[in-house]
């Protein structure tokens, strides 16, 4: 008789642990629930963000109460400790674990359910060896729950931040390695045209959307990108050098579309080679009402230097010798020297 009763209790605890794990997992893996409760609390606390601040605690408390009721019905001892302390420490430990490993959302939920079930089942069995009054259990449980709900995000933030940084670094190194053109950088330290660090921009959270390298030379902007297919249609270096079109393409894409070619042909822009560097690079110049471009011709790389027509960034013709000294000093750059830019823009 005792054996049958024992088996019945064990089965009840298993069911209680399973239901507890499901309720716990809703909180652990479905954050929008807190947001929905937060919006609901705005009707009770109008004009205050307090609702969103306490929503996680309110949801955790309600789910803990449900776990307490389930365990009481299953005949568990110290159901208050199972519900409150079990939920509190389960949330802390599970959050730390999930923040430390890399799993898909589906894998996290599956693993979380298994671990939560094992946790509540073990806790239910352990409580048979613990003697605590309901009043003391509630006090301990409430303190543990409040501490866990508000302290856990603070504890996991450094772990999550480190993971995000490591992933950004990994994707950045991959993007740098994938740059299929030679990168050039001036070695001459010009006081008039001080050079900034070479940067790669365009990280969208999973990949780099831009394939052009940028830096500045004082008030001038510099972009580099690979020589594009069919580029000769807009840059034939005899009677047509549409540097402006090429610069615009750098901003949007790494390919030359037919519409770009058609647009360029409508603007017949003459070429003017003004200089040849000591290592044989041809330097072309374009000036249109203060919008000035220098184009440096290489085998695999487009290098464009731009001055805007804004008074603050306007080109000074008297500084041409200094600019040519900077251009003459362009040398191949070790790609490991490239730095990360932001997700938006190109640094200008």
Please state the average pLDDT score: 87
Per DSSP, what share of the residues sits in E-state strands of 2 or more residues?
Answer: 5-15%
Low-confidence stretches: 1-9
Structural category: alpha+beta
Note the overall shape: elongated
Pattern of helices and strands: HHHHHHEEEEHHEEEEHEE
Strand order of the largest sheet: 5-6-7-8-4-3-2-10
> What is the tally of helical segments?
9
Sheet of most strands: 8 strands, mixed
Quaternary state of the chains: single chain
What labels would you give this structure?
348 residues; alpha+beta; eight-stranded mixed sheet; two-stranded antiparallel sheet; 9 helices; disordered N terminus
List the helices and strands and how they pair.
Layout: H1 2-29, H2 32-44, H3 50-73, H4 79-100, H5 105-126, H6 134-178, E1 184-186, E2 199-200, E3 213-217, E4 220-226, H7 243-252, H8 258-265, E5 273-276, E6 282-288, E7 291-297, E8 301-307, H9 320-328, E9 330-332, E10 339-340
Parallel strand pairs: 2-10
Antiparallel strand pairs: 1-9, 2-3, 3-4, 4-8, 5-6, 6-7, 7-8
Walk me through what this model shows:
This protein is 52% helix and 14% strand. The chain contains nine helices and ten strands. It has 348 residues and is α+β, with helices and mostly antiparallel strands.
């Amino acid at each position: 008789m005792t054996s049958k009763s024992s088996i019945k209790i064990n089965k009840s605890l298993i069911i209680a642990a399973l239901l507890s794990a499901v309720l716990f997992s809703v909180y652990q893996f479905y954050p929008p629930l807190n947001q929905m409760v937060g919006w609901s609390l705005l009707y009770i606390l109008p004009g205050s963000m307090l609702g969103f601040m306490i929503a996680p605690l309110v949801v955790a408390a309600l789910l803990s109460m449900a776990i307490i009721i389930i365990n009481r019905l299953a005949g568990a001892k110290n159901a208050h400790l199972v519900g409150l302390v079990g939920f509190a420490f389960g949330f802390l430990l599970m959050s730390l674990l999930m923040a430390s490993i890399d799993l898909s959302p589906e894998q996290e939920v599956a693993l979380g359910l298994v671990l939560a079930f094992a946790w509540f089942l073990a806790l239910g069995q352990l409580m048979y060896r613990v003697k605590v009054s309901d009043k003391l259990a509630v006090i301990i449980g409430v303190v543990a729950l409040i501490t866990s709900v508000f302290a856990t995000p603070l504890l996991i933030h450094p772990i999550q931040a480190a993971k995000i940084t490591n992933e950004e670094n990994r994707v950045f190194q991959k993007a740098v390695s994938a740059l299929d053109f030679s990168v050039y950088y001036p070695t001459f330290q010009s006081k008039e045209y001080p050079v900034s660090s070479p940067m790669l921009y365009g990280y969208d959270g999973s990949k780099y959307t831009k394939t052009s390298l940028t830096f500045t030379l004082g008030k001038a902007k510099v972009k580099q990108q690979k020589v594009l297919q069919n580029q000769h249609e807009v840059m034939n270096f005899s009677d047509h050098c549409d540097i402006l079109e090429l610069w615009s393409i750098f901003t949007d894409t790494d390919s030359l579309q037919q519409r770009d070619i058609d647009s360029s042909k409508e603007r017949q822009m003459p070429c003017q080679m003004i200089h040849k560097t000591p290592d044989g690079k041809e330097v072309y110049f374009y000036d249109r009402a203060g919008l000035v471009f220098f184009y440096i011709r290489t085998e695999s790389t487009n290098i464009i230097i731009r001055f805007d027509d804004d008074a603050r960034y306007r080109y000074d013709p008297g500084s041409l010798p200094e600019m040519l000294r900077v251009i003459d000093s362009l040398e191949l750059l070790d790609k490991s020297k490239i730095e990360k830019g932001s997700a938006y823009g190109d640094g200008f």
